[in-house]
Design a protein that fits this description.
Blueprint (H helix, E strand, L loop, with lengths): L1 H33 L5 H6 L3 E4 L8 E6 L2 E7 L2 H13 L27 E5 L10 E3 L14 E3 L6 E2 L20 E5 L2 E4 L7
Antiparallel strand pairs: 1-9, 2-3, 3-4, 5-6, 6-7, 8-9
C-alpha cells in the first residue's frame, strides 16, 4: 500500500512540477514573442494620417508626415490641370501614362489621382531621396521660359509636373511615388489606407 501511496505522491508532484514549468515557460515566452512586434511608437509612425482638405485653397500645397516621409497634398487649379493635359501629349515626360508602378492602380492616369483636383504624393525625389520644392510659378526666371510649374529638386535638378511626373533627361528615373489613400468625404482624405480597405 505504501508503494501505491508513494506512486500517487510522485504522480501528484510530477503533475504540479509540469504545470509550474508550463506556467514559467509561458511567463518567459509571452514577453519574448511580444517583443518581436512593432513598438507603440512604430505603430504610430505607420498609422494612417487624416487630412482636412477644407483648409487647402486652390493652388496651395500642404505638407504632412506619414511613416516618417513628407506627403504633399496639392489642390490643383484648372490652369494646373490644363498644363498636365498639354504635357501628357508633348513627349516631354518619362512616364506620362503612369505605366511604372509608382502609384496604386486607382491613380494610374494622367492626373495620378482619384480626384482630378487633388494630388497626394510623397515628396521625395526618386533620384537620391532629396525633397523637391514646390514651384508653381510658370516661366520662373531661374528655371527657364519653358518651365510650366511643378516641383524642382534643388539637389540635382530633377523636374516634376503638377502630377509628380518626371521630365525626360533628368537625374530622377521615375515619377514621384503616390501613397495609398482614400477619401473619407469631399473634405477629408486618409493617407496610408487604400479605398478597398477603408
Amino acid at each position: 500500500m505504501s508503494d501505491e501511496h508513494d506512486k500517487g505522491k510522485r504522480d501528484f508532484l510530477v503533475g504540479v512540477t509540469a504545470g509550474m514549468g508550463t506556467v514559467a515557460t509561458g511567463a518567459v515566452l509571452v514577453p519574448f514573442v511580444a517583443s518581436w512586434g512593432p513598438s507603440e511608437r512604430a505603430k504610430a509612425a505607420g498609422a494612417p494620417v487624416e487630412v482636412d482638405l477644407g483648409k487647402i485653397k486652390p493652388g496651395e500645397m500642404q505638407v504632412f508626415e506619414w511613416r516618417g516621409k513628407p506627403v504633399w497634398v496639392l489642390r490643383r487649379t484648372k490652369e494646373m490641370l490644363a498644363t498636365l493635359d498639354k504635357l501628357a501629349a508633348s513627349g516631354q515626360l518619362v512616364d506620362p501614362d503612369s505605366e511604372m508602378p509608382q502609384q496604386p492602380a486607382y491613380c494610374k492616369n494622367k492626373y495620378r489621382s482619384q480626384k482630378d483636383e487633388w494630388l497626394v504624393v510623397i515628396g521625395i525625389c526618386t533620384h537620391l531621396g532629396c525633397s523637391p520644392t514646390f514651384r508653381p510659378d510658370a516661366h520662373a526666371a531661374d528655371l527657364g521660359a519653358q518651365w510650366p510649374g511643378g516641383y524642382f529638386c534643388p539637389c540635382h535638378g530633377s523636374r516634376f509636373d503638377f502630377a509628380g511626373r518626371v521630365f525626360k533627361s533628368m537625374p530622377a528615373p521615375k515619377n514621384l511615388v503616390i501613397p495609398p489613400h482614400t477619401y473619407l468625404s469631399d473634405t477629408a482624405v486618409l493617407i496610408g489606407v487604400d479605398p478597398e480597405v477603408a
